Amino acid sequence: MANYREILDRSFLDKLNENYLLDLLNQYSTILNKDTISYLNDLLKLKYSVATNSYTKNNEILNHLDIYRYIAQYNIYHKTKEELEKRNILFNDDISFNENEYKILRGYLEDGVLLDITLNKDDMIAAINLYNTDLDRKRQILELNYLKEQLASMKNKKDIRLPNMSSCITDNGEEKIIYSIPYGLDKNRIIQKQLENDILILNEQINLKLNQDEKEQLEIHNYQYSSLLNFYSLCENKMKEITTNSRFEKTLVYNKNGLKFISSTSYIK
């Protein structure tokens, strides 16, 4: 019986087709019960999406069966591709391999990537990544207030002087750092200037209105993103938020039916 890597090496898009998987499924006909065989056959026929319909009986056991993983990946690929085609969303379906991951499908809007599907070697059948871009004035104002607080705090700190530095190559070929006096730039002042510049730019962004093209692109992206959430029966309120290092990013995660859904929203600065 073919192993996981062997099937992927046969090319997912060209070789892992319905007939091939039906033949593979027949090998399990004496191992799995009739209900399970029927369920897997329905997934192959694309009667419904494995992302929204799971065979609950012994589902945990199914998730570890190779045949289920192959058919589930086939189902996810084709059902998602159908949805992208229905919405006239451009996509590529070339397999790309990066470390331990195979990317099998990417959907694009004019302003960037909307979705990609990754097959990985961990316990998940696949990772479905959704990408959104949005505008959130509240986040911008919170960030602006934070930067202003940082600037006020820096102004209250004592000056930290940085010595001028230069280097030279010694006779044995090593680099030698030379600290010279008088002292150079004020580190506090450098950070203050950076903060002042960030505040100026962000303040301009808050007061800047999107032009018609930008507004339309944003609306299209928001609509298509929401549509894919609905297609996968996902609700942001039920997804777990992952802490990020930026106020202008939001990452949500949800595990379902052996799949990992990751929603990444970038907010316009």
Descriptive notes:
- With 269 residues, the chain is of the alpha+beta class.
- Helix content is 42%, strand content 28%.
- It has 9 helices and 10 strands.
- It has helices at 4-9, 12-15, 18-26, 34-44, 59-62, 66-86, 137-155, 187-206, 212-231; strands at residues 90-92, 96-98, 101-109, 112-120, 126-134, 161-169, 175-186, 240-242, 249-256, 259-267.
- The strands form 2 sheets. Strands 1, 2, 3, 4, 5, 8, 9 and 10 form an 8-stranded mixed β-sheet that branches. Strands 6-7 form a two-stranded antiparallel ribbon.
- Strand 8 and strand 9 form a beta hairpin.
- Give me the Rg, rounded: 26 Å
How many distinct helices?
A: 9
- Please outline the major beta sheet: 8 strands, mixed
Number of strands: 10
Unreliable stretches: 1-10
Report mean pLDDT, rounded to a whole number: 79
Report the principal-axis shape.
elongated
Span between N and C termini? 52 Å
**Secondary-structure content class:** alpha+beta
